[in-house]
């Protein structure tokens, strides 16, 4: 049985002025896989997620979502096509409740052709969706609590929930454990394990224990390029990986 590719890119380069943050990067992630993207600070991991999600326009190279070339598709359309994204720095509205945050995560395209603010059924659909997502990320008990009142772990769950509101088939998660206290790590990992079901996940993470446990495969990046790809055991055994981290003076390695 061959598994189809859920998301891939070929020859993607990104420049910031003269600085080359990504150099002809090619990766592919098969449907249903969890692939971790690791590498020292500044390796280009977030830049790659930005290129894949369309947050960085005008990248060279080709990006495919399933069988569709999305290289020229703008960020909101990629989201509507099933590409979900979470951010390294928590990207939620702290003063709003969890319910309001989740509602905002719904793709406006779904409601564009109907005046949903006047249409009760539009609101009801959105609210039902927010409740279902809250259940999935275990936030039902705090739906009407302002996000700022929640622990970092639960704010991460809100962030994850936001990305789930548009029914993504592929999730790009950028350091979903960043800022989460030790006491909440297991809970947050369990959440990721849960939402991965039926989806494909490309995950940037510095917590190596988590990376080794959660991923089917690991891609190692350094200096805007792919250094290697392999299983947890293969990555751990590769002297080039050790060298990459030791040479970088990385804070999290
Ligand atoms: N908007 C930008 N303008 C200029 N340089 C940038 C910009 N965004 C990223 N860079 C640079 O591109 C390189 C890759 O950055 P990126 O954020 O992708 O690294 P990363 O692998 O995600 O690192 P970290 O683990 O610290 O999050 C870094 O040298 C960074 O300083
Ligand atoms: Mg980053």
Which properties best describe this structure?
single chain, 253 residues, alpha/beta, Rossmann fold, six-stranded mixed beta sheet, four-stranded antiparallel beta sheet, 9 helices, binds adenosine-5'-triphosphate, binds magnesium ion
Describe this structure in words.
The structure is a single chain. The chain is an alpha/beta fold. It has one domain (5-248): P-loop containing nucleotide triphosphate hydrolases (Rossmann fold, 3-Layer(aba) Sandwich), CATH 3.40.50. Helices cover 36% and strands 25% of the residues. It has nine helices and ten strands. It has helices at 45-53, 75-80, 98-105, 120-136, 152-164, 182-195, 208-214, 232-237, 239-248, and strands spanning 5-16, 19-30, 34-38, 60-65, 68-69, 83-86, 170-174, 200-204, 217-222, 225-230. The strands form two sheets. It has a six-stranded mixed β-sheet with strand order 6-7-8-3-9-10, sandwiched between helices. A four-stranded antiparallel β-sheet has the order 2-1-4-5, with helices on one face. α6 (182-195) links the parallel β7 and β8 (200-204). The chain is globular, with a radius of gyration of 18 Å. The termini are far apart. The mean pLDDT is 90. The structure holds adenosine-5'-triphosphate (ATP) and magnesium ion. Magnesium ion (MG) binds at residues 45-46, 88.
